[in-house]
From TrEMBL:
Alphabetical UniProt keywords: Oxidoreductase
GO cellular component: cytosol
Protein's UniProt name: Putative NADPH-quinone reductase
Flavodoxin-like fold domain residues: 1-137
Organism this protein belongs to: Rhizobium mongolense USDA 1844
Protein family per UniProt: Belongs to the NAD(P)H dehydrogenase (quinone) family.
Keyword Oxidoreductase included in the entry's annotation: yes
Amino acid sequence: MRVLVLHSHPVEASYGAALYRQTLESLATAGHTVDGCDLYAESFDPVLSRGDRLVYHEYPENIALVKPYVDRLKQAEGLVIVTPVWNFGFPAILKGYFDRVWLPGVSFELVDGQVQSRLRHIQKLAAVLTYGATPFRAFVAGNPPKKIVKRVLRAQISPLRPVTFLAHYDMNNCTAETRAAFLGKVKTAMERF
């Protein structure tokens, strides 16, 4: 299976980068063809410009500036997101990726006013997230990243398939032991992906 792994942490020596490397390695060990998309390393431009918005619904004109990313998404059979959660949301670069790449004609199309997915070729979805907040604080805030992964993205890909959702909460108070345990959990989950 060809797996697209989206990564959005700007610091190469961070725990988030270690999670990304572990994800890539474990998927490859499991025999998958892995396409690692490190948005910061690739200098992805997350800004949906005025020009982008003007052609937003005009497929294929809307993909002109992001065609390589669109091609990678269209080739994916699995999708894994590895990202920190900042202010109970995705980093701007990842949000911008969804705004600029998951376009009409690419991830969905409108048919008689109804949204129809164009991502049914993706068979599996997973997320590896780190939160500064505790699980309770994330719950009280509504945990938007979890809902985006388990509801919005899942619905666009396949509403009936299970989603692998892994989260290390309370990074503000983590220890070497909690980080190592979560890294092991990611390793196991990605080898079973």
